[in-house]
Each structure stands twice: as C-alpha cells, then as structure tokens.
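Lay summary. Proteins are chains of building blocks that fold into shapes, and those shapes determine what they do. In this project we predict the shape from the chain. Here is one chain we studied, written as its sequence of building blocks.
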Amino acid sequence: MNKIRELSPLEWMIRTQVVDRGIDDAHVIEAMRQVPRDKFFKPGSTELAYADQAAPIGHGQTISQPYIVALMTHRLDLRPGLRVLEIGTGSGYQTAILARLAQEVWTVERLKPLLDEAFERLLDLGCRNVHFKFGDGSLGWAEHAPFDRILIGAGAPELPRNLLLTQLKEGGKAVLPIGPQEEQILTEVTRVGKELITKDVCACRFVKLIGEAGWSKDVSKE
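And here is the predicted shape, written in a compact code that computers can read:
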C-alpha cells in the first residue's frame, strides 16, 4: 500500500481508475501515461485533474472522467495507420489520447473558445497529426470521410445513422453515448455494409450533442 501511495497523481489515476476497473489495454494505458491530464486544467487544479469524476471546462461543457476516456478509447480498438474522427473536441484531452494511438485525427468543436484552447494545448504537447474544425460536429467532417473510427464525446438523441453510414468505413467502429442526459447508454457500433451493429457498453452521462443532427440549441446549458 505504501508503494501505491508513492505513485505520482497520474500513475495513481491509471492504477486505481483504469487498471483496477478492468482496462488492461497496454496501448491505451501508455497513451494516457504520455498525456499529462493536469495540462487540461487551470494551474493549481491537479487534485481535480486526476479525480475520479468529470469536471467543468466552461461554456456548459465537461472533460470526461479518466475511466470513461480509457473505456471509449479501448472500445475503439485503435491501431497505427487508422484515421479517426472525433466529434466534440472539448478540452482536447481525449483528442491527445487518440493522437497517440492513431495515424491522424480530425476533431470538430462547435464552441470556438474551447477549440482555440485545445489547439494551443495540443500544439504544446507536440501533437502534429490532429486537424481542427470549428463547426457543427453532429454533421461530421464529410470532406475527409470515410474514417476508420469515429468517437462522439456528446450524447446523441438517437443513433446517428446517416453520419455513420456515410462517414464510417466498412468494418469501421464508432463509440458514442446515446439518449437524453439522464438516461444515456455508451454504445459501440460496427458498420457492416449498410447495417450498423450496436452493442451497449454501460450507462453514462455526457453533455448533449448540439447541432443539426443532434439536439436543438434550446436544450443546451451554455
């Protein structure tokens, strides 16, 4: 126990919130080890950065708890050479994890202040394989589709079939929360031809996916 308590906050987070909860994916763990989570928080917020909870980042948005980031990344089954679309850049923390595991990441954010801050953080961390877009993430990024993987970091009201069938490659995977804020289910999706095979992962709680193919703006708490 003493040795465990001597771990850095980052290693303590990985040990207690990721590994101890059953995620033993060495690639995901190493990616999380390479990304200092406290860099995505204000100075002096280290305790909050490594806490087992989501945290506000302004504009009514949040950074997901470490376990959920690890779980979603693991479920994507990322490998070198894959192209990933991320919808909802937010703080840029999940983006940085994806950038460590994929060949290239295309990330879309509808709130310009968050996108600008994430851009600066990722630049400072040396992430040069990330492409940023300011816009309606619920519509994806059609110009660069299809993608091998799609991660949506906000709750869609229902399965975004059109987005997944037009922008996800054959055999590709997507991970996203579906449902109203109080009743969301984290869902893994595999595209097989014109079919979308879904698998429920766990209950979760994300901010709502706002946009033309998501929730309308009047339900956003910006």
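What the prediction tells us: DSSP finds eight helices and nine strands in the chain.
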